[in-house]
Amino acid sequence: MEEEKEEEEEEEEEEEEVQPGFFQQLPKVVTKEVVRDFAADGVKYLELRSTPRDEPATGMTKRTYIDAILEGIRQCKEDELDIDVRFLVSVDRRAGPTVAKETVKLAEEFLLSTDGVVLGLDLSGNPMDTVGTFWSLFWKREKLV
């Protein structure tokens, strides 16, 4: 009986360690670590790319995912690291055209509002899959640049 109580207390302590918003902050933390590592290696210009994640179980949306990455980049700039960091929003072919259109729209919003930190789009996944479907998405957006 005493052992069960101790186990329950340990489980509660483990659950308490994960702060609300912890998962939403992971992209920022990872971004900062990656940027710091590249800066420490002497890299002067870095383009990061990532596919926006939507994780309903954690409360993370694609928008908060990108916001967290951009916050990590901003914090590194405030720390005066000697590296210029830019970001490409990645469209994963495997997610299909509907998700791709949503991602392109989201990228467009960030492209227009981040003073050049978001440079544009990256198309990831197997290049032999649905080339024509995705080409039209990018072709329509070329006027933004």
From TrEMBL:
Q: Which UniProt keywords apply?
A: Hydrolase, Metal-binding, Nucleotide metabolism, Zinc
Catalytic reactions of this protein: N(6)-methyl-AMP + H2O + H(+) = IMP + methylamine
As recorded in UniProt, coiled-coil segments are: none
Adenosine deaminase domain span: 29-126
Q: Positions of the region Disordered?
A: 1-24
The record's comment on protein family reads:
Belongs to the metallo-dependent hydrolases superfamily. Adenosine and AMP deaminases family.
**Protein's name in the database:** Adenosine deaminase domain-containing protein
